[in-house]
Amino acid sequence: MMNPARLMKSAVVVFILTQLLSGLPVMAAGPYRTPAEVDAWTRALASKHSQKVKLHAIATSPGGSALRVIEIGNGEPAGPAIFVAANFDGITPLATAGAIALAESILDGDTGTSKARWFILPMGNPDAAQNFHASVKRLSSANGLPVNNDMDEQLDEDGNEDLNGDGFITQMRVKAPDGEWRVSDEDPRLLVKADASKGEKGIYKLYTEGTDNDGDGQYNEDGPGGVNPGINFPHEFSMKDKEAGLWPGSTPETFGVMKFIYDHPEIVMTVTLGESNLLADLPQEGKTDFDPSRIRIPERLARSTGLSPTETYTMEALVSALSARYPDMMVDENMIISQLGLGPEKSFKKGDITLYTEWSKSYKKALETAGISSLMAPEKPRNGSFELWSYFHLGVPSVALSLWEPEAAKDTTAKAPGNGARGADAEKKPSADKQLLDYLDTRQVKGFADWKAFRHPQLGDVEIGGFIPYAANTPSAEKAESILKSQIPWIASMASMVPDITPGELKVTSLGAGVYRIEWFVTNQSRTPWPTEMGVRNQQPAPVMAVLKGSDMTILEGLARTPVTPIGGNQSKKLTWLVKNDRNSPVTIELESPVVRKQSVTIPLSGN
Amino acid sequence: MRKTTYTKSIRILRHLLPALLLSLCLPAVAQTKAESKVTVPLRFDFYYDYPEVNQALEALHKAYPALTSIESIGKSEEGRDIMVLTIHNPKTGDELSKPGVWIDGNIHGNEIQAGEVCLYYANMLLTKYGENDRITKTVDRNVHYIVPVINVDGRARFFSDANTPSTNRTIRVPMDDDRDGLTDEDLYDDLDGDGHITQMRIRDPFGQYKTDPEDDRLMVRVKPGEQGEWTLLGNEGLDNDGDGRVNEDVEGYIDPNRNWGYRWYPRYVERGAGFYPFQGVGLKAIAEWMMKKPNIIMYFSFHNSGGMWLRGPASKDENLPPRDVQLYDYLGQNAEKMTPGYRYMPSWQLYPTYGDAGEFAYNIVGAYSFVGELFMGSQETYRKDITKPVDDRDASSRERMKFNDHLGLGEMYRPWAKYTHPQYGEIEIGGWTKMTSRLPQPFMLTELVHRNASVILLAAENTPDIKLEVFDVKELGRNLHRVRVRLSNQKAMPSMLAQSAASKLHPQDQLKASGVKIIAGGRITNLLHDKVTYKEHKPELQFLTVPGFGKEEFEFLVEGKGTLKLEYVSQKSGKRAAEVKL
Fold it and tell me: Considering CB atoms only, which of B181, B234, B512 is closest to A545?
């Protein structure tokens, strides 16, 4: 353990270094930092920009690293904010580099905070992120929480070993009569599962590199750690995956993020930097069996509400029937849906997909500028991921970006090697693995370790080889620089996409005898609705309220607190009140919401 | 609105002042009274308020220091301590090597008698230890974790604040129930200052109710064509925020039994869920504490009301392994006989729930989980033959009123009284008081707590009791021995849950053989036919679960001479050892 004085000294050194480097381009410090370096950089950034930057320690990982959120303010006490989270899965160093570049770019530029404030978490899973910097590189999202993966008598007892000493954990293949794998027709380096129905026979068994340390016949089945915070969020959480944890938020990184975000209701958008890309691989609308014009009431509910279980009802009819029966309760569409037990939403809403499609076009232009024509298929957002949770639970636009995937080969119809390929097969798109190999080959990037014979202490003669960890998602330092240069400005420009709800035209009509009609327009100047269609469904984002205040005023029609939201993009909403104001004292209307900078108008009411 | 708040505080002050003065004048008297109530053996003819519950735990600990410890699991949202009493005899083994029995209550703030069941059970175990054989054995063989009050803020405020029998269930995290941007801004108001939130009614010839011709304190629904007399205005209160609705954003509302981590769904799916599992501080502290007690195999959580023994699953789309259902049936069917009128059933048959504590205990803690729904209104009788149920709603109300008159000393009901409401004008306030409807009258409490505590005792007695024995040693020649080992369970409860094994929640029980060379080892599948399934790797380590009232048998082929050591290790059922000289 480092003593405090030494820790202080090293922090000072880092601070001075950062000061020296601050005038240099973004990548000067090297794009890929260790968790300790990220933390030092974070603290240095805060002291350099003490007026604009505030740090929030939101959790400590099981491995002992602090998770700090960088708040970049704009001098305003409130108003909309964007939360950026990077590298929850711990295997995308580029995501962390992106978050760092984003923070620097916002602070160096002058437009990044005019419309929105930022909260940036550069490393969501520091424990796993450390693996990239280890002398032996392995891909693992597990944090430092010990987990008994194989349910035996020991914890974390059978991890991988770098048997051939090449610095990477790759794979081992072993010839076996009951092998399931055969050499791919596409490329002799690749293995595919044998398909018995096509007369194929497997010859290899495939393992990850290492020994059976605990002698149970399984290889590397219980390595160090842990839980992956990247799949520990509540949306579609599944405890069946040991790496997901026992319950959503069971690991401190995830719980800390959820608490922080709910403590900051001004967050109107999230950006996830990681493995998935919701703008390159657009979300699809799902099917639903629920028809709001023909609703059947389950027996149990019918009994308690006096409705008939054999009839069908429209949503409107149900709302009015139940409101009449339960005058004390707030009966609305959402309450009925929740009583019907339809369960959680699982697919993106139509209106929101339109928004994603528009953003996607703009984002792809930015990619083209970087010379990236098309991305190979990014990972799908995982169940329990931060990006899905943001969309489905927070009800805000959730933009996930993978920043980089190896570009697809130009000619995707190239014939597969081997003469036996028939016409139809030759037309087939190459597999993702083949595309990746082609990419690595053409760029002469060392991303695949050729199979080489090795004498394994337990398995005998094996071959070790396969894709090198991080080859598929982590470009070289030089490449990273150009990727970030082209994409970071686009992400920074998202500040101009946040909902922008402002007071509009005001009309006051005197009806005589101190009675006035007030008509007020509230406008969303942004293309982005507030909240999203999902946010309307889950009722999670706090409402924007128009609050009417006057010391001697009586409201004849309308409410002192009137909801303005939901409000569509580029839309105005008209609010009206009828008030009686005998003494002509001023009346004010205020827009009240964490996502709106406080705005009020004073209405001079005078009899005429 | 400001005006309303001002009047409200004046009103509150006016009600508090006499009590305040009284407490200043008579501190000694008040204290003596409180102390006299909390003595060991504990009494169960009144309800303990929150400080008294803690005094009771302390008193039990003071009286039985060798068998008990008390600690604070953590603080609640309002900073109150959540106390646990551990009953454990260190002379009979380590804490974590004994099957753990968890008992809690009062997760909903208003369900106070659940806390009394916990206190009664603790009191019964301790005061009868050494005198009653069943209890002595249970105390020596098990460890009990008893948390009488989960929702400490709720219990404290149920006593101190004006309430209905059904309010103050929530944990104290302010929420915006009516989506107007404000939290908890339209609370109930004790308009008549009697300490109860009762009902409001207004005269209305078009109303749906008229005065009951048989008892003018009650109302009956008008029949079609009949002239109405009253409209019910709901619970006592004001429209504090001027939005045209009364009491629509009351205290809370996160339901503490909808915010645990197993199959948790957000608020739009499951009313009462928080923003995320374990939002707040109290429940999180409790869950983390439970996770440090991997030996917990039996879990009871007491609620009111309805008279039920509920087990999982909590939703229809989940199924339990048959072996777990067997154990539940054994306990549940016995419990039904010990608590007449209670129904034993899967909780989804009542209604489906997500994120509740019982499901967390079953699926994440790995404990058989029962929710006891205490109290049945049907026990408040005033009739000669109680075997025939009263089906008619009005007749049942009249009977309950007679019960109040003759057995409840008239304290259960507030007669309607006129009140000038700032928004409604001339109204009447009256109805059932807070210590009714879901709570037995104190004279019935003793029987309720004893019957339910007896069910806990039955379950505790049936926690696994594993025996390890070598029952057959045979020489096979060439220095080879065949050793057969039996693990048997004297009790109904398996040594771990089938569900935990299926979901790989924690490692299965292990039988380890050491000391001599193990050539092969495996489970005997048919003893009479000598059928054994040998384990390919690590034969010296076998994984198993010992069924309830059943056995598992293993065979080891051992080479050479020496002492064969056998060790059984279980997360839930402790450790056993045996050895045999070869």
Answer: B181
pLDDT at A375 over 80: no
Q: For residue B481, give the DSSP letter.
A: E
Does residue A165 lie in a domain region? yes
Residue A293 pLDDT grade (very low, low, confident, very high; cuts 50, 70, 90): confident
Q: Which residues of chain B neighbour A152 with C-beta distances below 8 Å?
A: 507, 541, 543
pTM for the model stands at 0.92
Task: Judge whether A528 and A522 are in contact, CB under 8 Å.
Answer: no
Distance from CA of B504 to the nearest CA of A (A): 7
Alpha-carbon distance B262 to nearest alpha carbon in chain A (angstroms): 6
My answer on whether B154 and B279 are in the same domain is yes
Tokens of A561: 């607190």
- Residues of chain B positioned with their CB less than 8 A from the CB of A393: 266, 276
Specify the residue for token string 């909903």.
Answer: B108
Q: Residue A217: its chain B contacts at CB < 8 A?
A: 536-537
A578 within a domain of the structure (yes/no): yes
Query: What's the angle, vertex CA A378, arms to CA A377 and CA A380, rounded to 5?
Result: 110
Residue B512 in any domain: the answer is yes
Chain B residues within an 8 Å CB radius of A257: none
Cβ–Cβ under 8 Å, residues A272 and A400: yes
CATH number for the domain spanning B85: value is 3.40.630.10
Closest residue, chain A, to B316 (C-alpha): A341
DSSP letters spanning A207-232: EESS--TTSSS-SS-B-S----GGG-
Between A241-245, B15-19, B496-500, the lowest mean confidence (pLDDT) is in B15-19
Residue in chain B closest to A248 (alpha carbons) equals: B261
- Same domain flag for A169 and A135: no
Question: What are the tens digits of pLDDT across the range A558-576?
Answer: 999 999 999 999 999 999 9
Q: How far apart are CA A370 and CA B315, in angstroms?
A: 51
- Give percent of chain B with pLDDT exceeding 90: 90
Half-sphere exposure of A293 (CA within 13 A, CB side): 0
Residue (of B538, B578, B535) closest to B555 by Cα position? B535
Across the interface, whether the CB atoms of A248 and B242 are under 8 A apart is answered no
Report how far residue B288's alpha carbon sits from residue B290's, in angstroms, rounded to the nearest whole number: 5
Closest Cβ–Cβ partner in B176, B508, B512 for A151 = B508
Number of domains observed in the structure of chain B: 3
Q: How confident is the model at residue B250 (pLDDT cuts 50, 70, 90)?
A: very high
Query: Chain A residues with CB inside 8 Å of B543's CB?
Result: 151-152
pLDDT of the residue at B21: 45
Exposure string of A332-351, with b = 16+ CB inside 10 Å and e = fewer, is: eebbbbbbeeeebbeebbee
Among B247, B271, B506, beta carbon nearest to A338: B271
What is the total count of domains within chain A? 4
Whether residue A13 is predicted with pLDDT greater than 90 in this model: the reply is no
Contact status of A215 with chain B (Cβ, < 8 Å): yes
- Identify which of B243, B264, B504 has the shortest CB distance to residue A248: B264
Q: Is residue B1 part of a domain?
A: no
**B323 and B421 co-located in one domain:** no
- CA A48 – CA A55 distance, rounded (Å): 12
The domain in which residue B206 lies consists of: 175-246+406-437
> Distance (Å, rounded) from C-alpha A31 to C-alpha A95?
10
Report the residue of chain B nearest A563, measured CA to CA.
Answer: B180
The number of C-beta contacts closer than 8 angstroms across A and B is: 121
What 3-state class would DSSP assign to A155? coil
Judging contacts by C-beta atoms under 8 Å, the chain A residues touching residue B508 are: 151
β-strand pairing of A117-121 with A81-86: parallel
What residues of A are in contact with residue B510 (Cβ under 8 Å)?
153
Kindly report the CATH number assigned to the domain that includes residue B524: 2.60.40.10
How large is the ipTM?
A: 0.92
Cβ atoms of B279 and B254 closer than 8 Å: yes
